[in-house]
Fold these 4 entries.
Entry 1:
Amino acid sequence: LEIDGRRVTGRGVSVDVVEASARAYLAAINRALLVPAPRDPDVTP
């Protein structure tokens, strides 16, 4: 999943492939919202 130019991954486990995919998608979205994007070292404040 790519959000704001940042690639984010998630994992989901289930015997149903559709449910596992949905869980992985939601995990990736949660990770994107909780983990801040790395700062660009070339940008000065």
Note: The chain has one domain: 2-34.
Entry 2:
Amino acid sequence: MGARLEGRRIVVTGAASGIGAAVARLAAAEGARVACLDRDGAGAAALATGLPLPGYSEQVDVTDPDAVKRAIDAAAKALGAIDGLVNSAGVVALGPISEMTIDTWRKVIDVNLTGTFIVSQATIPHMRNTLDAAIVNIASAQALMPIAGASAYAASKGGVQSLSKALAAELAPDIRVNCICPGLIDTPMNAGLKKAPEDGPPVPLDRYALRRWGKPEEIAASIVYLLSKDASYVTGATLAIDGGRTFH
């Protein structure tokens, strides 16, 4: 077992699958106790039960401020405090803007951007009196280099990037805030992008210098770094982990 997060108490949203699950597993392996929050309460509970250190799990919708506050307060009580937060909950919706409904637009913005705000607002009071407190928000390479047909998703993730910078300025020097911009990661949320030829072409990997999908564990490794003391002089940063998508 590693020790980079020894004794830390970390909240992870979207923890039942994908990047969130990978973060929860790696953080626990590095010595942290983890609170796993997700709309999929059973999935969050199953993941928390399998972690090497005692943790906590709760079913919660990040767009519900009252439910989020209750879940964060309960997590802080169960863990003793909160030193770190990873905002990983997210949804994606693709399609031309001419066909996008206002309900779809609002759902993407509400979960990805407003959800990050709601969870951060509820968690920050629990972090102010802890040492080495850190927040990592998950945006997307779409925030840096959007593609056609991703207007709602790109807008929401661009907002997450800007919110991260604003919080870094507001919460310094007590709480560090950084942002991760993943590229094409092999998660359940992105499963629809791996279309069979009869359903249309898959995402062209020649847009990515490394010519492959990323793994959730590769994103988790950078998030754990940003949560740890190794990143003690890093705040307000945006880290693109995208296989070279945004420069290629």
Note: The chain is about 40% helix and 15% strand.
Entry 3:
Amino acid sequence: MSNTSTTTTGPGDGARAAEPTLKPSAKRAYTTASAGPTEGGHAVMLDRRPLSTPARAALVLPSAALAGALAEEWQAQGPRPAPATMPLTRLAFTAVDRVGPGRDQVEASLLSHVDGDQICYPAERPAALAAAQTAHWQPLRDWAMQALDAPLAVAGGVMPVAQPPAVGQAFGAALKRLDGWRLTAVQEVAGITGSLVLALALAHRHLDVAGVCAAAHLDERHQMADWGEDAEALDRLARAEADIAAAGRFLDLLEEP
């Protein structure tokens, strides 16, 4: 660790690598994508064929709104479908193919990185960064205590922090309360931000997408303010924030009928 800005191993490091791979089709093999009811929920139809996952599982979605949004992603594709332009589909496939059958491993992976949650590693300097982190992160630590009963310890100086057992227990209970769809979004956001607290705050509607992005990328924004903007860094930041926004929309659509 550093007593300036820090880079920690966050709770989602490596979690996104296990997502199902969306392979581009040689060509678009359907004319119309639509959504409709199916047994147990809602389906996406490519012409008259129900969309299935890369593992060939039935894709039964819990809300008509989510099914409709996936259908819009597929309808918007050109002659060669581009998986990178279908973030909601990727999350839905991950929920069915990876999180559903591997829920225990997903939870264990998230909990194994609790000690590295970035909001527990504030900088001591420069003063402007330290102040920004305090302003964004202390309310989140307070929320974790009040809403999740998680008494987070904060690192000081260069030494890593070991969270008390009560924190792991509280986060474990919070994850158990999520269904597989919401756990998928939490895994996604934790992997991007290096913070399970931020991911849970989004899932619990304590923060919106803009709030998560602001709290997650304080160090990057501070460095760009000090040293100037870098095109590659800006691109990485934009892609990360687009993925957080997709996860936030995924959560929103789950709340709609």
Note: Residues 147 and 204 are 9 Å apart (CA to CA).
Entry 4:
Amino acid sequence: MLNVVICEDNSKQRKQIKDTIENSIVSNSLNLNIALCTDNPKNVLNYLQENKNNVGIYFLDIDLNSNINGLMLAKNIRKYDPNGYIIFITVHSELSYMTFEYKVEAMGFIPKDDILLLNNKVRDNLLIAYNKYNNKIENDDENKNDFIIIETAYHKINIKFENILFFETISSTHKIRVHTFKRQIEFYSSIKELKDKLNDDFYHSHRSYLVNIKNIKEIDKKRLLIRMKNDEECYVSIRRLKGLVQKWSI
């Protein structure tokens, strides 16, 4: 999952940016998570040290009330996340040339003196970064066996196999619901189509379920229930129970 980090020292504007991003995630069914929303650039540095291999989208105020300004913070972000997407939010758009001096390759500048424009630009830049990331992943041959691309009515979403708990069919529709650690997404497909796209970590445990073996916590043989690592449950049929137990035990 792609993470979003917000660093803005004005509490009102920080909340506004966070609300806009949360609304965009929900309304556009984006596979995004706001990992950090803070006024302190040192919290961002701590986050980077703990999440060194994660690509992120960063919304940064340039004029932070700190000895670390947004440009300096962005330079540090590049050390840990060279492929991340950095968007500056500032009243000083004339400072855009400074990004070349700091070598941070900012994706955009958003003026924050116009509330309506701020909301629109935050949403637009979020979607641009999200789509760029998904297109890059989709075209990266090294990652092709690590994720599945799901298409909803308006978006393509890539989900790493390791984040998937199980897929289930939805009664009386041609839809599938995928359960991940963070959310559930509905899309048009079938179990048969999914089996052709998934790797050997997934097992067809029941007519209506495809389960990720690596995320199983417990198998209740008596009740024919599979409990996942987040305590969600799905089913296994009697006919497929033996095969599931054998595969899970390997």
Note: The longest strand covers residues 32-38.
